[in-house]
Amino acid sequence: RNQLLAAVLALRFGAGAGLWLGVAAATALMAGIAAGLALFLIPMMTPAPSLLFNALALGAAGAGMLGQGLIGRMAKLDTLKNWTTGPFNTGFLGLFIRQFTDKGQFVILAATVRTEAPVLTALGGFAGAMLPLALALLFQDRLGRMMPLNRIRQGGGAVLLLVAAGMAVSA
Predict the structure, then answer these.
(1) 3-state class of 110 per DSSP?
(2) Measuring CA to CA, how many Å separate 49 from each of 43, 46, 103, 138?
(3) Contact indicator for 27, 99 with CB cutoff of 8 Å
(4) Which secondary structure element, helix H or strand E, spans residue 14, and what is its range?
(5) Which SS3 state, helix, strand or coil, does residue 155 take?
(6) pLDDT of amino acid 41
(7) Which of 24, 61, 76, 125 is surrounded by the most beta carbons within 10 Å?
(8) Who contacts 75 (Cβ-Cβ below 8 Å, separation ≥6)?
């Protein structure tokens, strides 16, 4: 849904620098918040529970992706058409709100707890979240015709569930 919102905003505003910067700033802030929050959990977790926590995060992300891919439809997306805040602010606030409860933040949090490397996990989380957003900004409504998005979602979800199961068993 984050990618869909980015594509809709790019159609509305054009894929100019303001929108790109707003989306990137929101994504960077959310990755930083998730990694920063993990610093409070790191002292409380030994390796086995942190591995199980990571497995839970990946499993939840995988189940969400697989469920969306199998259903093939999502709830109605608010396209923020009544917002008059311009491309940067609409991109920043819209994506920040959408990403606040996204599975990616949980994965970044858990990965930071597991690796105890907040800067690297925040950078990796930012890059991983920005890649699909960049594709959405670049290709907008053509993206769905260019790629089998439901199949990609299903495959990614299945892989994450398998990795999570392996991690949980070894915890």
Answers:
(1) helix
(2) 12, 6, 19, 40
(3) yes
(4) none
(5) helix
(6) 92
(7) 125
(8) none
Tell whether the model's pLDDT for residue 69 goes beyond 60: no
Q: CA-to-CA distance for 17 and 143, rounded, in angstroms?
A: 20
* Residue 157 pLDDT greater than 70, yes or no: yes
103-112, 123-132, 146-155: range with lowest mean pLDDT: 146-155
Q: Which pLDDT score is estimated for 154?
A: 87
- Whether the Cβ atoms of residue 32 and residue 100 lie closer than 8 Å to each other: no
Question: pLDDT digit string (tens) for 104-114?
Answer: 899 999 999 99
Token output for 169: 């068993």
Q: Return d(Cα 29, Cα 126) in angstroms, integer.
A: 9
pLDDT at 78 over 70: no
Q: Which amino acid is at 87?
A: P
Q: Which helix (H) or strand (E) holds 8?
A: helix 2-13
Could you say which DSSP state residue 1 is in? -
Question: Between residues 51 and 14, which one has the greater pLDDT?
Answer: 51
Q: What are phi and psi of 74, to 5 degrees?
A: -130, 165
Tokens of 90: 């609409």
Gap between the Cα atoms of 68 and 160, Å rounded: 14
Pick from 43, 49, 65: nearest CA to 167: 49
Q: Are 18 and 87 in contact (CB under 8 A)?
A: yes
